[in-house]
Amino acid sequence: MAVAKPVSIDPDQIIGAWKSLTYDFYKDFKHLTQPVGPGPLERILFLHTDYRNCMCTRPQCIQPIKVAEWGHASDEDIVRVARGMTTYSGSYMFYDEKGQPMLRTDVDIALGPNWIGSVQIRTMKFCEENDRKYLTSKPM
Description:
Helices cover 9% and strands 50% of the residues. It is mainly β. The protein has one domain (5-139). It comes from Glonium stellatum.
């Protein structure tokens, strides 16, 4: 099996929808946890308009709720679904810091209200292997 080789990040290569293989939290480059467990259901969307959206949930949270409309769901169903989900979106930009590709997102909407108005910084690595592309990021 060939090892994925890092390549420079060309923003045009990033545009589109990405499926996550893992979702991990780091602090000071030290792995802390997988907040939604293994095998997350996550999509990250990068638009040409320099706007991105990220939605992630635990697979066990996607069981249907008892009513057709989310607004009429029981508190129990809302807690079960919402506690296992993270979502945020905002404008983004790629930049270079001491040779390390970085991603900055200015969050304008999020499920967790404390993220609204925050700036999320991630180190980035873009790799290609055969016909697959991989994008990895770690919070700063």
